[in-house]
Design a protein that fits this description.
The chain has 69 helices and eleven strands. Strands 3, 4, 5, 6, 7 and 8 form a six-stranded antiparallel β-sheet that branches. Strands 9-10-11 form a three-stranded antiparallel β-sheet. The protein starts with about 40 loop residues before the first helix and ends in an 11-residue tail after the last helix.
Length: about 1500
Amino acid sequence: MFENPLPNARFDADYQQINTSWRKNLSMSPLFVSSQEEELSMDDIEHKIRATLKSLDFSQTQPGAVSLLYSFNPTDEVLNNYSDLIQDQVRDAPPTNSSQMKSLEAYSQLGKRFVKSTKNKTSNYFVRQQERLQKRLRKYQSYKKEANEKKVELYRNYRLGELPDIQIGYMDIIKPLEKLACSDYNISRMIYCNLVVSIVKNSLEETRSEDLEFQDEVIDAIKMNLTNSTQCFTPTIASFLRICFDLNATKFDSALIKKVSTKSNNHHIGIAFLENQLLKHDADDEDDNRSKRIRVSEGGHLRHEKKKWIDLSLLFKEIDEPEIFQGTYQNYVASNNLSKNAIAAEVGMEYARAYNLFKEAKDTLLAKTDPKETSLWDEEMLRCFEQLTQWDDIAIQVGKALPNTDYDKLWEPGYKDFYLNYFMKSFTRLRQGISLSANELEGWTSDNANPIFKFIREALNSTSKKNYLIEHFPCEVSITEMRQKNYNSGRYIIRNSYDSHLNEWATIHPLAHTSRLKKLIELQRMVEVEDYFEFLADIKSSPDNLYKTKQFFSLLCHRYPNTHVDSMSIWDDIIDTRLLFIEDLKDNISQGSAANIATITRQAKKEFLEKMAEAAYNQSIDNVAIKYLLKLRDMDQNDVYRFGLLQQRYVQSAKMAKDNPKRNKAIATTLVKCLEHKIPENFPVDKTFNNRLLMSKIYRFIFNEIQDDPNIFRDLARSGSVKNSINNDPSLLSIYKFADFLEESGYQQFNKIEEKLTKEDEIYTKCLWEFGRYCDDMLRFIQDSPNKLHPQINQKHYSEIVVKNYLKAMDRGSKIAAERFPRLLELIEMYPESGEIFKEYSNSFNGTWMYIQWIPQLVAVLDTLIAQFVFPSIKRLAEAYPNALYYPFHISFEHYEIIKDKLDAKNVENIEQINAMLRSPLKEEFLLELRRLTDPEHILKDFIDFIQSVVSSQDTPKSFVVNAFDQISQLLLNPYNTRLGIIPKAFAIKYATELREMMGKNGSKLANLSSKDITKILNYCESSTQKTSSGSKTGANLLKSYSPWLAKFKIGDHVEDLEIPGQYDGLNIPYPEYHAKIARFDGSVLVMTSMRKPKRVRIYGTDEKEYKFLVKGGEDLRLDQRIQQLFTVMNNVISKNGYCARQEVNIVTYTVVPMASNIGIIEWVDDTKPLRACIEEEVNSKMLFNRMQGLYRAWISKCAPGTKRFTESYQKAFAESRENVTKHMEDTTSYIESTVMRNYLMRLASSPEAFLFIRKGFAHSLATISIFGYILGIGDRHLENFLLDLKSGRLIPIDFGHAFGSATELLPIPELVPFRLTRQLVGALEPLGISGALEHVMVYILQAIRDDKEILINTMDVFVKEPLLDWKKSAIKQAKSQNKVSGSESDDMDGSYGHEVKWYPQKKMDIARRKLDGDNPSEILITELMNGHQNQSYIESLKEIAKGHPNINYRAKVGKKCSNVQEQVKCLIDLATDPLALGVAWVGWQSYI
């Protein structure tokens, strides 16, 4: 009710800003506002009026105006004054009628000063005056009464920050809530639920009894109402279910919950209710292991809990979550593999196969299966028919389901809920008759009429049935009336349906997106039916039939459902209705215009059928696509038919399993049809392009198949039809020549289409992209498969096509081409001849902003041979967007300064030119001042580590060391520097003299320091300077304590502007002139508790917004930035996947700006909390956490008693038996429930429905983090490295210090799991678990990335071109341990800042590629363990853990390579949840939580 919390409000006497008008104030003033009346005295009021005014009353300018006093709180004094005014200010109203005007004419006579009034006039005057007085008096009394009701006594004065004493009657709260509830269904539902639940719970508290009799009575009453409900009014059902949920009612029939939830569109609360029941299942089921499938009891009858799982899974399907439906059914319900495979086929949109599997299961397993499960099979079979648009079969099944095929039975509850829908939909479509078999049509006759007519006619005579049909099937009823030429009746029905549709929409829960979307989809069809009736009425009354017909069908041709997302049943509803319009229109047009209108309708019908076939093709529903292609053929659209049929053959061949014996024959048929396919010369250019693109795909597909299995070529060579198609050319009987033929044929398709295209064509950009990708795919194939059969192509020419077409497509705004930009850098390195093409087109490139996304890749190659081709692009970028390039170039420039003596002179010249273009004194100052925010002790330690790594190398220029000393001197060693805050100044006063002595004047000793000297300085740092934390220093939370310059910074004090970093993403055109600039810094900082004590600063921008950043010094944030860049690329990749796009699956990214090699900032994410803090808050007992950690640590210690090194205990633990480790994990985890995290998420949610969305966000983000993290090898995923978004429930990963497998390779206690999937994370997904809520999401994510893996590999190439300093150190260390270099050589490499160690990052990239190729995760883990621990005694134990046990672990049953993505995901989950791997993890990782 209040804008700010009450503690932030002011009620003290000196606060003058309180508006106390209880009558005219439109804002939601506090109810106790009238308690301020004694504080607002006349002096207070006068204080607000200009001193020149002597009176508080303004002169009256309008009749009936009142005093200014009345605009304030009407105290008694004011009201009394107002009553006086009533008596003193009575005036006549202006004359308005003719009689009054005549009475005034007497005054206009000259010479008469007075006019004598008649008695009648005088009497009327006083009557009117008295009436006005009485009216004003009544108004005044009403005001006074209202003021008295709102008056609150003030008994004392209040101090600043003190809350007033408030006394508010219950009625003052209930009355406005009652009014609000009457106007909003959702609010009324919430109020009703809260009242009932509160009454029940209060009654239990008052009686202090465990007797739940009253609660049971309430629940029983709700059960009765739910059972007897016929209307299933949405808010009422939602209220009942919510009350039962809040009262933890467990003994509820799941079928009843499912029924009322579905009928009332309350699916989400129904799901939450059933899940709650499953979590609180009966005591008899507590011993069941719910992580496994629940078995069917004897006789094939389902257990009670299993029935709940069926109803729960069906509810998930109703809200468009078929994957959860599949996971729950397969893991908790299915009693046989046939039904499991049928569900998988249905979810995969293989409806024909799904139907056949369901039918087989029903035919063979009916007697062994519970009727509840077989009933589900029947329902799913009908749904398969619906998606296949086989309405004849549906009509037959509906008739069989009814006793004696009595359609009147459809009004009975047992049939109405399910079969009435299918009856209405099927028989309205069967206009000619019903097909009893493939070649037998039973036509409708007078003796055998379509039952829909009689059914609707009888229903319309019953008010209740009529209302039901209008509410649920308005289009079907209207269409039926249309077919009987009852146009007025049809129009009346469709118009009246809008009210019920709107009412139903208004009552649906705001979070029920699927239910709301279904209503919107229904609306499109309703609108089109109504439009047709209106159109029909217009053409009957208008002579211009042709124009109106063209206009009507033109509108229809511009709106369609989504070809990828909307189901076939939705498409069929729309298209079939439109086809009916065309049929009906023939009977309603005059003979004169019939021919012209027939032309319009024929063209429209052709487009409708094409769109339907296209949607079926995009969704891979072959039966429907072929059905509509045949209809197109019947319309003599042979070219469209042949193209569509070729598409279907291609798709079917590609989908066939490798071991299918018919596959080779299908491929041969597809090739023959492709070779024979002819494209008419007069074909439109877009259709020509689509045909040739399809043909090129077919040639490339067959080429790839021959590479994988040369036996396919043998079968093709033997095929007579293939021989005939290639004119029996004997040269093509060689596999090498045939491969060349296929490649050349595909290439020529693009050449031919390019001849017809112009730049003005809409598909020109797509053609550029597709042609470039075609050539690029072949170049990559040659690059990645050197030992396979290669076609004889001109690779240089292909590379030039790729570079040219990608850049031209980018220039035309193609973002998909922009994603491949890193590939261009790779190509010009492999084929330098294409570099000139790159240089030529990049010079004329207009979309310079597209380079911004790839700045790290661009600046990483400036010291290479291809830099000459890249410099023009970077210079244009520096001119257009210098602020976007400044910081990345600044970091790379530090590296170039070291190695510039080895660079080509031309490269050095260009680098210096770019540096001059970007030079900014203000930014240089800004960077230096940001470094001051790091604690002095850490700055010094980082400097010495840096010196140790570079000065030992002879490659490092002396000037570089001197410059580094100058910087450290400005930061720490000059106590007279006015830029120093009190913290670095205190450090300088205490330690600067001795440090300067050790390093020499101006750092002269640094270049000649021995290892002994460096050790001495290090020891001095550790013993003398590292004693106090920044948090304990005076003024540690003040910005001026570190940098007075930042604290005093103001935008107007400088000629330059400082842009707030992080405003360039390269995804959209930036407009720097509108970017926010730094106006000033907040005076306080937040010091983090981590080891390096980073500081959070608050920046105020010129756009009047606050920007929070975490400043991290002494760290190279390029790794974090590159990880975020890879996350962005992967987000773009998975957004192309249908499921990920529909469900908005992605990872949350944030801005990371490395500003120098040792300083950077990270965007601060508000409204988040570390995962560990969330769990600790929910448990509310730190002692439990300490006890668990102590128990875990004690067990590890027992593995090696007597040892002083904790790492040795772990090394011994690696060899412990699976039974011991599992028992240890069970004992440790038993201290807290597995659902602690779930309970926390539930507390975040405002309702059970909201919880489902929060958990969904949690699960999707967890799946994304897991798969992305696995591919990038991100480790160290302890609970502090996950943030929970407190608004959405999504997880946000932070801190990527260990990436690309370093947590496994480099840590002394290696990580053995691919990602974090510990007990609490799994518990948050209950009762669905991993299989129901997580696994399918992981599969879709990984599949999407593997399908487009080359984009990711190309982006990762920056790690090879510009390795991180930490990687260089690790490479040298690993090279020594693996004897990759000789002793003398390693000495030279040790600490060499400029030495190239590309083999190390290349090895990391190879592992990433293996992950994307589907290698078994256990094999990947073993490789990483061998890289870092191969010489250790415990390596064999680690390898055994990685492999797993064949009888227990899924990964151990899979070969070295996974056969598909689902198998790979199952292996990952198996490894991540293996107690043997978790039980020996580092204690700080907290694998037991």
